[in-house]
Amino acid sequence: MFEIKARDAMARLGVIKINGKKIETPTIMPVVHPNPKKQTVPIDLINKLADVIITNSYITYTTPELNEIASEKGIHELTKFKNVIVTDSGSFQLSVYGSVNVQPMEIIDFQEKIGVDVGTILDIPTPPDVSYERASRELDETIIRAKDSLARREEMDYKLKLNGTIQGSTHMDLRIKSAQEMGKMNFDIYPLGAVVPLMEQYRYGDVVDIILNSKIHLPSNKPVHLFGCGHPMLFALSAALGCDLFDSAAYALYAKQGRYLTVDGTKHLDDLKDLKNFPCQCPICSQYTPKELNKMFVSKNKDERKEAERLLAEHNLYITFEELDRIKFAIKEGNLWELVEERCRAHPKLMDGLRRVSKYMEFVEKNDPVSKKSGFFYTGFESMFRPEVYRHKQRLNRVQMDKIYLTNVSSTVRKPYSENLPNIECDVDVLIKDPVFGLVPMYIDTMYPLSQNEVPELYDYEKKFNNEFVSNFMSKIEEESPEKLMDIHTYNYYTNHSKTKFEKTKETLYAHKDNCDLTRLDKMLQYQYGHKIFDNEIMDKLITKRSKTTKRLRNVMWKDTKEVLFTVRASDNFLIPAKEGAKLLHEKIPAPFHRVVIDPSVEEFAKDGKSVYAKFVIDCDKELRPYEEVLVVNKEDELLAFGTTLLNGKELLEFDYGVAIDVRNGVN
Ligand code: GUN
Ligand code: ZN
């Protein structure tokens, strides 16, 4: 029921289908009061803005008038909301009042009875910082209720979808246990519970710990809901960590107190009242001045005050959805980390949250696409810790280098470095110190993100940041194979030698570089695929082609037949295989690497070049990252097709819905 369409960071632009209705993620579920008289914003507007709402089954159950209508006509008729309706179970009331007047199974039955789309178990929201014993005991009780609730659904043949909430307070081993135990059960959505008190205390570092410890142990194919997160300033960060759903009572609650939401935090109407206009263009803010709205808000006339609350709540809702649309666009463009870094600059506590992410980079990187439409923009020191950088430092080891010369370049040298540095002989591996990416082998420097990045002039401490990485990398080579390190004199000979050429025309420069094209492609393939694809025997049979206009490397072909093996994709300089290239990758990369094994029943479709659906994937390279080029094979490891994987290794095995591989071509 959950399908990924596009992604960036750990965020998933996806579709959830429930009972024939659709939700586009990431999204927010406005909290709607089950009593229409207590609902601040008219349901018409909510119907217009939202795919899904959350309301409360416990209040509905315990309020006789509401219970009667819901029981007879259903929750959709009671709330007048047309699309997906999620209900909470009374757990929040449990956390506030200490007890509730309902049994765990009773509320499951009721949620089914009133036609809820997604109900919630009666979990126990254990607050932060309580004793380990209490958190553990309450978690055990939540897990028992979770099992009972699923058994009840099964036994009664309910069609209700269920939220299985993750608890465990601020004890991370309990959060992990909760995610593992609940993850084994067949819940439809996994909310992360009891984070509201942490958010109220601005403890965003702890929120990040909870999100990531849960995400690491939850199944990847189920949507995750950050329960009680309704402030737009937190959406970008939490979406980037893989939270698909949010819920907001904040839009209405804040309005009652005259509070005006922005993506940078909350303002008070009183603070805005002297502005000529609101800093927002939503229908409310374009229609009213701060002065007018404030006047209504402080009015003694009850109706006027109520009207002001409604208008304020509507602004809060517009701004909330606007931020989600911005996040979705950022996912499509591949610049979500830039948005996150921007948002987290609004408050040092948010920055705590962002900085905490680096602790989990090994996991985060596995979910981050290997290539993005947008370049990498360095927005501040935190950018040093991004998954693109972490990945490059790992993958640097993939590139074989035999005659290494380490060099500094001034920060004014335009990228790619190789187009702006003097030429040298093909067998020399110039390793360029890069302040952000650590070390960049000149032969792969055109590949994403090594050239597709913008970095401002750095402070001295930033320039020094990678010194330790560089010296560790070089020391290791010195210890293991000192003969690979060339000394400065040798290198100077080469640079001086080619400098004369460098000063000639652009044409001569590129003509000279042509000689090294195959070496370059060999290293690029190593970097991208982690294996050596071109041996000497093959190299002799290849020719390369450069673009006549840009002089850039375009493709590589068999010398005799002129069949193309790989095309250099302009946007990221990745080597995209044609049929001949795929065959060569298949021959040179041992199984299971870069492979996705599919079910025999769809073999023929794949051979014809049709997309591969996740449910037909039976095995794969577990180390695949989103947007990598992969080989589609059968159980006998025969090549069937090749294309781009939308899912990483873990997801390929866990998803059973939606497209997994965007197939470029089949072998037929
Ligand atoms: N609303 C906010 N937090 C929670 C939680 O932990 N559990 C439930 N069921 N609802 C919540
Ligand atoms: Zn507005």
Report on this structure.
By secondary structure, the protein is α/β, with parallel strands linked by helices. It is built from 29 helices and 28 strands. It has a six-stranded mixed beta sheet. Strand 2 and strand 3 form a beta hairpin. Helix 7 runs parallel beside helix 8. The longest helix has 32 residues, at 302-333. The protein is globular and about 85 Å long. The two termini are 32 Å apart. Residues 491-512 have low confidence and may be disordered. The structure holds guanine (GUN) and zinc ion. The site of guanine has 13 residues, from helix 5.
Could you give a quick summary of the protein structure above?
This protein is an alpha/beta fold.
Share in helix: 40-55%
Rg from alpha-carbon coordinates: 28 Å
Shape: globular
The pLDDT mean sits at 94
* N/C terminus separation: 32 Å
Bound molecules: guanine, zinc ion
Strand-pairing-aware structural class: alpha/beta
Beta-strand residue percentage? 15-25%
Strand order of the largest sheet: 24-28-27-26-23-25
How many H/I helical runs? 29
How would a textbook summarize the main sheet? Answer: 6 strands, mixed
Count every beta strand, where a strand is a DSSP E run of 2 or more residues.
28
Taking pLDDT < 50 over at least 5 consecutive residues as the criterion, the unreliable ranges are 491-512
